Amino acid sequence: MKPYKPQEIEPKWQEKWAEKKIYQAKDFDPKPKFYTLIEFPYPSGAGLHVGHARSWSAMDAFSRKKRMEGFNVLYPIGWDAFGLPAENYALKMGQHPSQTVAENIARFKKQCQDLGLSFDWSREINTTDPKYYKWTQWIFLQLLEKGLAYRAKTPVNWCPVCKTTLADEEVLADGLHERCGQPTEKRQQEQWLLRITQYAQRLLDDLGLVDYSPKIAIQQVNWIGKKEGINIVYEIEKMEEKVTVFTTRPDTNFGATFIVLAPEHPLVEKIVVEEYREKALNYVAAAKAKTEEERISQGRKKTGVFTGCYALNPLTNLRMPIWVSDFALMSFGTGAVVGVPGHDLRDFEFAKEFDLKIIRVVVGPDGDASEILKPEQVQEQEGEMVNSDFLNGLSIAVATKKMMNYIEQKGWGGRQTIFHLRDWVFSRQHYWGEPIPIVHCPKCGIVPVPKKDLPVELPFVERYEPSGTGESPLAKMTDWVNVKCPECQSPAKRETDTMPNWAGSNWYFLRYLDPDNEKELSSLSKMKYWMPVDIYQGGFEHTTLHLLYSRFIHKFLYDIGAVSTSEPYAKRRSHGIVLGPDNRKMSKSFGNVVNPDEIVLKYGADTLRLYEMFMGPFDQTTAWSEKGLQGCSRFLNRAWRLFQENVREEETPGHLLKKLHQTIKKVTQDLEELKFNTLVAALMEFINDWSDSYLSQKDAELFTQILAPAAPHIAEEIWCEVLGKEFSIHQTGWPQYDEKQMIEEMTTIIIQVNGRVRGEVKIKDQISKIKNEVENEAKTNERVVKYLQGKKIKKTVFVPGRLINFVV
RNA sequence: GCCGAGGUGGCGAAACUGGUAAACGCGCGAGAUUUAGGAUCUCGUGCCGCAAGGCUUGUGGGUUCGACUCCCACUCUCGGCACCA
To answer: Terminus of chain A with fewer CB atoms < 10 Å: N or C?
Structure first.
């Protein structure tokens, strides 16, 4: 028998697959299309990660099955090569990013090919290719033209290590930069922003049109953070000015006792009375100077200053002191809060700190109607209104509606919907990104580069370290920066900020459809054929980053008629990450990184692919185990041997034929549902049965076919070299299972007494469905008899073909 | 605090619409083969017990003839969000 040598057979078939171009997708093919998308990688210096290998080989198996089922499958890949990590890596290597990126791409590509992934390489794209980013820039100009890109001086997140601004989505909950892990700061800086907020409602609503796994959809809903409330305008005593607050709980307004303004609120300056002025302005200055980190480190301890003015609560005629405190955020609502200390814990803490009046207007389910003195008494959620005139006795929900109507009728305010989602900070002060195609002219102002002059190519610079001054390194390139204004021809300067790394990934899946198009980002007819993406597989960490951004951009492109669908991805699933053998995140510093190259060299790509699918549920985080890998290697070796020794020129025995059809069914279903772990288990179960038996040539072919998606090389080798079939197995059809072959002639019926298993009986399948027959059989069962002796059977529960339960 | 996911053998995990809990793999034990190791093959392997039998899906309760699965309460772990009005 020939030994199984993956190191010999794998490269052989990889070459032949490439030569025969069997994985190329065909535009406009009459077969039904299927577009499988994986997140294209950033080609890091570390090379392919076993995490990449996991999701790509699983989706490869999925795509291979789709192809065999007769779909015209598009499974493409490209490179997301702009951005901070690429720049940082190049700096570390002392090379230009264009060089390191090219090297890294070459390595990644080789690694993908060594894994035998069925990507359509004819459609490979690279976001740093000027022919590609021409269209990234074109999209920016379209956004500008439609007023969705604008410049503003806003507080932005700043990473002092990477020396650049960041989007909110790039800053983690504890204020750390998601890429480098260092603390970020807030800075005021003139920035390009994109009005993603204008699409907030549609991004929310249209989640109903797509099939995203619930946790992805829910996280997007939370991030968009729609809140419906009301803006209430209060008169300020002895002043012209009025103060507007946003609240979702107007029902508690009979309990409102004070107002708090954010330190940045423009009203502070105007209304603060002389006596308190100095103290207040000092507080404002101090609050503005605080970093995020400092604010967080103070915890919930409330600080603040009084302005000396009072707003009037029209419901109660109560004079509500107006305070300034940094717990009110200028970036949320109107930057002003009405304090209801009895029914909001934060307001309570503030009132306690500064000895402000507390009124109870809700009695909770505990019935406590006493004066509110302790935080535990603050009833925020449920209860019945009290001390609230026309609201008394109503539930919170009813009272809220009633009060909203009342306020609107009285003309004190109007309903307002707000979102947590912020506009997207879209400029970075770095070299390695798409130049923003803008010219700043002293006469004409902001002038877009004419579309015929795109792309604005990134100039080659020797020194591209970030300056840290808030200016992009491109600013030093005077030759490049100084241009004539496209409008008036007078001397002007180019925009030197570049786009964030998310820019190129907003629309890359459209470019795969038409990678060489020089006239448009992708042709409408090709989009009409291929779009939407049928399944998009990626990391959960991109839910509120890339996934949300690209939906926004796609909707915009749809609105201007540049794409054919309103949503880019029909279905989205995420996968779990692969941890190191020590159960920690793989990282150089832990020394627990597993390199796929070494695994391929030692065990072969098929073993690696199989193990990555087998290691655990696809959407769940799992630790790497070399032992588990060996189990998969053994499986392939056993299968290899069985194909050589246990295939006969005879009909397959009945029990094994039945198992084969059951396995075909299981593999078919599991692949469709992305249950890769149980699909591999099913294949293993089958060969365990096969090892005591034999298959006919015809049935051995069927098994090879269902093995092919998961282990494509060994399947091809067996197909062509052992079974003597024609190249290629991956272009054959998908086996159909035959329900008739799966029928069992004998069924095991479980016998229970009082719900406890007391015995079992094997009987003919037809008989197992007849109650009387089974009951007689069961009552005389040797093991069961003693449990029934001397007892009276009160009830008999019979599940046809499954079990019988005597209740005594 | 809020939102989400999860807790099953020594380990990774299975279990359809409520119907034999632990499939498959790892590990472990015994044996075969081998000069030895490794590899391979065979058998065994949830826990307690010599056995009969009993116990077992984070904890406590409930519904049911029957619960990993459904309901209620609690608890722990992980992911996300958070002075968000």
So the answer is: N
State pLDDT tens for residues A136-158: 999 999 999 999 999 998 777 88
Q: Whole-angstrom Cα distance, residue A679 to residue A659?
A: 14
Query: What is the β-pairing status of strands A227-235 and A242-247?
Result: antiparallel
Which of A599, A434, A508, A598 shows the shortest CA–CA distance to A41? A508
Which nt sits closest to A794, CA to C1'?
B65
- Which two three-digit tokens encode residue A244? 């507007």
pLDDT of residue A389: 92
Question: How many CB atoms within 10 Å of residue A649?
Answer: 7
Q: What is the ipTM of this complex?
A: 0.94
pTM of the model: 0.92
User: What per-residue confidence (pLDDT) applies to A298?
Assistant: 65
Nucleotide nearest to A299 (CA to C1'): B83
Contact A203, A551 (CB under 8 A): yes
Strands (E), A457-612: 482-484, 491-494, 535-539, 571-575, 578-579
Q: What is the per-residue pLDDT for A297?
A: 63
Ranges in chain A, pLDDT < 50: none
Chain B bases closer than 7 A to any CB of the protein: 3-5, 12-15, 19-21, 23-27, 39-42, 53-54, 65-67, 78-85
Q: Which amino acid is at A472?
A: S
What is the structure's pLDDT at A292? 59
Closest by CA to A546, choosing from A227, A122, A223, A189, is A223
